[in-house]
């Protein structure tokens, strides 16, 4: 399961499939793919795992159904490196 | 309104050596104290048209540039800068007093003025449209800025774009345009009537000369401008002039990298920069010939994107 790191307000601006997002914890601004913002917003309501996220967001991504959970898992790992999301013990 | 040019030279020297010359540059009042003749000459030439306040008046910044004391005074004389009693810079050779003064004026703004998002960028206006040129050194930003200024553009700043946090307008801070090395000769040839300070050699940026800001730009220093374009310039020898649209998110990151206080402002900076990006169109611009660049900018300001 993944959740948004507490304290992140997820302030972002998105234009033409690319977004900038303000990191409340580091003060940095990140350039993100619009898909990463979709993932973050889906997690805002509460923790989800990659498979559930893939089901929610299937129509927003080009990847086929089987590859999508792994792609989202990789994206979550990248977002975790930025301290935007964290994995929860199952 | 009293200007530097209205003060007899003896009075200018007396204010600098005594209570301080209170010089108005854009939204700032600077109290300047100095006993250095080169600095007096530079201020008398390049700041002739700037307003001066009464010596005892309020000042945002307190700058003091003096000759170093001791043996240094006679052997390799140096200039020291202090701001409100603190000396953030190492002393420099006395001959570099004028460029040091300009750097110090920049330092005061970038370190003390956090009511604005301050971008390391030239900003000019024509036909009611302000164009912001963010760029690291070596991009040809100041050369381009100087060329546009000599062709009737209003100079808001060649170095620091002040974006007001409340409403996103750009406040002018028109000051002399700093030119380096071969750019000095290029602009002298491009605008033979332009007024320059005496070039100073061997600074840590090479040879430096300052181009006087146009009187019309100084007179409109209180008049904010609406930003219309953000153009990232790059000089490339032999390159044809090109203007390529840039995605807004990438333009945002490009401006943030060139801002002095984006990190300091935190979420306020993010909000202000987001609004600036929303209100403007961004481009990457390459050029090698100044005249072609000036013509393209004229079309951009006249016709819009």
What does this protein structure show overall?
The complex is a heterodimer of chains A (90) and B (305). Chain A has 90 residues and is α+β, with helices and mostly antiparallel strands. Helix content of chain A is 37%, strand content 23%. Chain A has one domain: Outer Surface Protein A, domain 3, CATH 3.90.930. In chain A, the strands form 2 sheets. A 3-stranded antiparallel sheet of chain A has the order 2-3-4. Chain A is globular and about 35 Å long. Chain B has 2 domains: 4-112, no CATH class; 116-303, Rossmann fold, CATH 3.40.50. Helices cover 32% and strands 30% of the residues of chain B. Chain B is built from 10 helices and 17 strands. In chain B, the strands form 3 sheets. In chain B, strands 7, 8, 9, 10, 11, 15, 16 and 17 form an 8-stranded mixed sheet that branches. In chain B, a hairpin with a 2-residue loop joins strand 7 and strand 8. In chain B, helix 4 crosses helix 10 (290-303) and helix 7 (248-257) crosses helix 9. The model of chain B has no long low-confidence stretch (mean pLDDT 93).
Oligomer: heterodimer
Determine Rg of chain A (CA atoms, Å).
12 Å
Using the alpha-carbon principal axes, give the shape of chain B: globular
Largest sheet of chain B: 8 strands, mixed
Q: What CATH first level of the largest domain in chain B would be assigned?
A: Alpha Beta
- Shape, per Cα inertia axes of chain A: globular
> Whole-Å distance between the termini of chain A?
6 Å
Biggest interchain interface, per-side counts: A-B, 14 and 16 residues
Q: Label the CATH architecture of the largest domain in chain B.
A: 3-Layer(aba) Sandwich
- Total count of domains of chain B: 2
Number of helices of chain B: 10
Report the order of strands and helices of chain A. EEEEHHHE
Structural class of chain B: alpha+beta
